[in-house]
Specification:
By secondary structure, the protein is an all-beta fold. The chain contains no helices and 4 strands. It has one domain: N-terminal domain of TfIIb (Single Sheet).
């Protein structure tokens, strides 16, 4: 289930309702962390996903932290 939290204002339209959405999936050796920042006012949207089975997506970034606002996925 997605975890959606407020994330401040939109850089594009200055709307104050940007949301930060995190999805996490894990099964056996596979895990996926996906992040989305979306503005409901102008529709601006940024997404990224990190997968354990795609080495190209594994960078020095921590997949449990939002690359846009730094929010931690841990409960």
């Amino acid at each position: 289930m997605a975890d959606i939290q407020p994330a401040g204002s939109c850089e594009k339209c200055q709307g104050a309702s940007v949301t930060c959405k995190h999805n996490h999936f894990e099964q056996e050796d596979l895990w996926i962390h996906s992040w989305e920042h979306k503005c409901p006012d102008c529709g601006d949207r940024n997404t990224v996903a990190f997968r354990s089975d795609e080495p190209d997506t594994l960078t020095e970034e921590d997949p449990t932290k939002c690359p846009y606002c730094g929010r931690d996925a841990s409960p």
